[in-house]
């Protein structure tokens, strides 16, 4: 008995000490944890790195794509580093939210940013050697995505270089930010933040872009199995990609659906029906290369980047909404008209040059070293020269080494084995084109097509390229004539006219048929038939400086060489400037700067910029109307644009001018109506690449059909409400005679029986002269 009593006494003294020790350790650990979290929150002694500020918590920022809209509110495209567009909670389907909760955070509605149960489960798994992850709540993931808690900027503390401590600090910051987020936002807002910020792979950030990329749907249109596919992507976007790893994606989709069944968010019978279904995609990654108006979008980005730099915005991250003047319907019609015509002309061009290379000099001989010189202008050549320190043997080896590549054809892309040199020769066989349509009164650009295919030909032929305009420049000469006392019915004899040059030589242009008729032409008929001798007469009387100044006043911005040959369009201009300048005629003499951005909104819908075009009173209303009267003549019998009437059946009031430059290097057409001013250019990117025959290469054949097809489509679309009304007359009476019927006309009108013959004239009597 004595022995047992002696052994019991120490036991009674031992237990209180153990309990006290446990309590001390627990309370001490708790205090240490609280102090640690507090130290992290204030970045004590710069040990942990900064936390996001309160202001950033109130205004969490993620990169949002800026969106470009047409005038009729159609999304044209986006500018982004991360393709992300926000969506509201009301646009999220229940099946998507349920799939996400079941898979990522089933207690999302119950916890306050941190889920102790999930953390305990993960800790136990780690202790037992079964690391499973999954302890982060949706709120923590939002904190990580929104505030970039693992970036170098947020983790420059003294302890952040210690591997295990770095991970603990990351997690601690996410816990702190999660609790703050839960206090600042509702569960719906946090759920929306998550789905707007998460990466789904395939350059799709956020659920709105992901739904469109993989299924071409809006989020609210997603089926339950589609929602499960997208939620399944979140674990590993590449590994579970339905595009590149469909079996992995299907297996993961079924796991998500099974989780929904587990938590009574999906009936088991529905799961059984869906689990064997294959995933049906409508996959399309958004990029600048595809979609509507890609050339325009690129040009708009240049303007927008400059504006953003000057006004403190980031075009690629601030989620701006940019509203343009482009009409999506007209843009579609322009793209369709240009593609159809150019595909047809390309076939003719191939046949025309069958067995020969199309790069020729002014004598019609092939330029022997053309490909070798052309490839030196490419980035590939410059990179190879840099890589091999200018060793030409190595460079030439790789330039002539065949590799797999995807090339453009008018029948769709084609996979081929080609060397870079072969590729260059292949692409140099293509004709290019540009088209622009503008509303003259406002200067609003309604359609912009810069080339035949943006993905393979990035060069824009509306604003970036400048080419000789040929006879389409002549209206500026006739405008100067109207301003200096001449009038439409003024008569000039078609005879050889020479203009003295400063060097003592004479400039004596010939007509297209190398003949002079000796007949009298009114100025109106001379413009209709592009008679070069009469242009020479006018520039000799007015002076090339007067012509250059008139064109500049009407909006031509490219350098103009004030020599007599300018009358025939020898200085390069842009299609963009030409359309704007022709708009001056329709606007009663007022030049309106062509413009394409109307307003910019921030991501909250606040208007932060509005734009008004520059206007200049360039001509008197009478001069402008006289030129409209003059420009009607080419569309009348005997005129170079008469084909619009019986080929395209355009019987309304139209003014027009065709243009063809030396050797048929450039084919132009300009068309005006009271509602629209349009311009078209067609040619090779290199001036040495063109048709040998003016019958095939003239503006009336190569450029005008695009305009005719476009206008037919526009007039057929009643939703556009484009009027066929006549040009309005000035309010004041015209001071000169417009009826030239009593004058001797140089040309004889053709009747309907001669129409086909008229449009297929041989080169020596072509009505649209080359320079």
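-> sequence recovered:
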């Amino acid at each position: 008995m004595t022995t047992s009593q002696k052994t019991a006494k120490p036991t009674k003294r031992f237990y209180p000490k153990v309990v006290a020790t446990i309590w001390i350790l627990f309370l001490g650990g708790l205090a240490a944890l609280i102090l640690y979290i507090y130290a992290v929150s204030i970045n004590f002694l710069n040990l942990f790195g900064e936390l996001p500020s309160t202001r950033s918590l109130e205004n969490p920022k993620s990169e949002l794509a800026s969106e470009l809209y047409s005038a009729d509110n159609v999304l044209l495209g986006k500018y982004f580093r991360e393709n992300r567009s926000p969506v509201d909670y009301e646009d999220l389907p229940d099946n998507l939210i349920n799939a996400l909760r079941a898979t990522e955070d089933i207690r999302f509605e119950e916890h306050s940013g941190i889920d102790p149960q999930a953390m305990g489960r993960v800790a136990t798994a780690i202790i037992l050697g079964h690391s499973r992850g999954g302890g982060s709540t949706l709120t923590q993931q939002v904190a990580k995505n929104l505030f970039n808690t693992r970036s170098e900027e947020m983790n420059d503390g003294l302890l952040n270089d210690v591997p295990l401590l770095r991970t603990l600090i990351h997690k601690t910051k996410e816990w702190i930010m999660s609790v703050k987020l839960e206090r600042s936002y509702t569960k719906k807002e946090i759920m929306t933040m998550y789905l707007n910020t998460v990466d789904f792979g395939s350059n799709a950030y956020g659920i709105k872009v992901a739904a469109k990329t993989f299924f071409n749907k809006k989020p609210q249109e997603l089926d339950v199995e589609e929602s499960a596919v997208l939620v399944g992507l979140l674990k590993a976007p590449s590994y579970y990609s339905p595009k590149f790893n469909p079996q992995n994606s299907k297996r993961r989709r079924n796991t998500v659906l099974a989780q929904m069944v587990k938590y009574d968010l999906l009936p088991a019978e529905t799961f059984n029906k869906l689990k064997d279904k294959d995933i049906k995609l409508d996959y399309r990654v958004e990029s600048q290369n595809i979609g509507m108006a890609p050339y325009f979008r690129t040009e708009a980005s240049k303007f927008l980047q400059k504006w953003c730099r000057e006004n403190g915005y980031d075009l690629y991250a601030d989620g701006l909404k940019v509203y343009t003047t482009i009409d999506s319907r007209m843009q579609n019609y322009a793209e369709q008209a240009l593609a159809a015509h150019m595909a047809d002309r390309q076939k003719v061009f191939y046949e025309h040059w069958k067995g020969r290379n199309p790069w020729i000099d002014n004598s019609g001989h092939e330029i022997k070293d053309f490909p070798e010189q052309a490839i030196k202008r490419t980035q590939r050549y410059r990179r190879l020269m840099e890589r091999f320190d200018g060793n030409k043997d190595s460079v030439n080896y790789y330039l002539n080494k065949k590799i797999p590549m995807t090339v453009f054809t008018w029948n769709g892309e084609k996979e081929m084995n080609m060397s870079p040199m072969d590729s260059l020769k292949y692409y140099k066989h293509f004709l290019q084109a540009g088209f622009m349509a503008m509303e003259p009164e406002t200067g609003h650009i309604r359609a912009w097509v810069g080339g035949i295919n943006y993905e393979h030909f990035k060069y824009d032929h509306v604003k970036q390229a400048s080419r000789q305009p040929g006879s389409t420049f002549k209206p500026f000469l006739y405008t100067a004539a109207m301003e200096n006392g001449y009038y439409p019915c003024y008569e000039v004899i078609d005879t050889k006219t020479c203009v003295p040059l400063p060097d003592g030589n004479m400039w004596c242009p010939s007509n297209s048929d190398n003949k002079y008729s000796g007949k009298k032409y009114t100025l109106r008929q001379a413009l209709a038939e592009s008679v070069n001798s009469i242009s020479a007469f006018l520039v000799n009387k007015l002076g090339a400086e007067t012509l250059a100044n008139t064109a500049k006043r009407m909006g031509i911005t490219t350098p103009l060489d004030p020599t007599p040959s300018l009358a025939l369009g020898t200085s390069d201009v842009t299609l963009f400037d030409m359309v704007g300048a022709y708009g001056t005629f329709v606007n009663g003499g007022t030049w309106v700067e062509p413009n394409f951005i109307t307003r910019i909104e921030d991501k909250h819908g606040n208007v932060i910029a509005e734009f008004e075009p520059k206007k200049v009173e360039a001509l008197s209303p009478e001069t402008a109307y006289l030129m409209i009267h003059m420009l009607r003549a080419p569309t009348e019998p005997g005129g170079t644009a008469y084909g619009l009437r019986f080929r395209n059946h355009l019987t309304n009031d139209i003014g027009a001018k065709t243009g063809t430059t030396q050797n048929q290097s450039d084919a132009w057409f300009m068309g005006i109506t009271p509602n629209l001013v349009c311009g078209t250019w067609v040619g090779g990117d290199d001036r040495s690449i063109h048709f040998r025959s003016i019958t095939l290469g003239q503006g009336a054949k190569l450029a005008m059909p695009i305009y005719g097809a476009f206008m037919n489509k526009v007039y057929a679309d009643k939703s556009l409400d484009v009027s066929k009304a006549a040009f309005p007359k000035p309010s004041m009476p015209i001071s000169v005679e417009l009826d030239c019927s009593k004058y001797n006309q140089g040309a004889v009108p053709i009747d309907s029986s001669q129409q086909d013959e008229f449009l297929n004239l041989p080169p020596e009597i072509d009505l649209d002269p080359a320079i």
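The radius of gyration is 36 Å.
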